[in-house]
Amino acid sequence: MNIFRFAGDMTHLISILILLLKIYATKSCAGISLKTQELYALVFLTRYLDLFTDYVSLYNSVMKIVFIASSLAIVWCMRRHPLVRRSYDKDLDTFRHQFVVLACFVLALILHERFTIQEVFWAFSIYLEAVAILPQLVLLQRSGNVDNLTGQYVLFLGAYRGLYIINWIYRYFTEDHFTRWIACVSGLVQTALYADFFYYYYMSWKTNTKLKLPA
């Protein structure tokens, strides 16, 4: 493992901890897209099918379990917690994510590295993660104002993907047979989706004003 991947993992973990802090400290999920969280839960469940079959390292296994457990816990809270679910912005969170899931699965059947169940689901999870943030970004644009914790959550989530792109570049030049082109292309698409948010976050920080995305 290189420093860029480790930094990406830690940044990803921080984004999840920020979201859990928001939910458990405020007993509110206002401004958070349940559909994005469901997509991320599906991403981790399909990507880590090898959790109990292919052991890489203790770090690798623990991180997989943490990402799966935390994503399912967030979805459960937003759906079932008696206080948290009352603050869910259902009327704003109307992105039709089922069509995204279907499109990514069809794409995975067409474009994959090896035609096995595990590899197809791995490709599916990569494609789905690239666009999983869309319902969240749409919700924030519709709601207008973005609270600090939600803004930081999205910021660290985008930073994680940026660090992973650097990781892939590093691995391309240092490993003899690095061929994860699906992850590289999907990562670039995902990072591009954050560009607009990054711009408005920077302008908000520069002018010391509340973050607000244009409708």
TrEMBL record:
| Gene Ontology terms describing biological process | protein retention in ER lumen; protein transport; vesicle-mediated transport
Topology of this chain in the membrane = Multi-pass membrane protein
Q: Which UniProt keywords apply?
A: Endoplasmic reticulum, ER-Golgi transport, Membrane, Protein transport, Receptor, Transmembrane, Transmembrane helix, Transport
Q: Where in the cell is the protein located?
A: Endoplasmic reticulum membrane
Transmembrane residue ranges: 58-78, 99-115, 121-141, 153-173, 179-202
InterPro entries membership: ER_ret_rcpt
List, alphabetically, the GO terms of the cellular component aspect: cis-Golgi network; endoplasmic reticulum membrane
Q: Which GO terms describe its molecular function?
A: ER retention sequence binding
- List the protein's name: ER lumen protein-retaining receptor
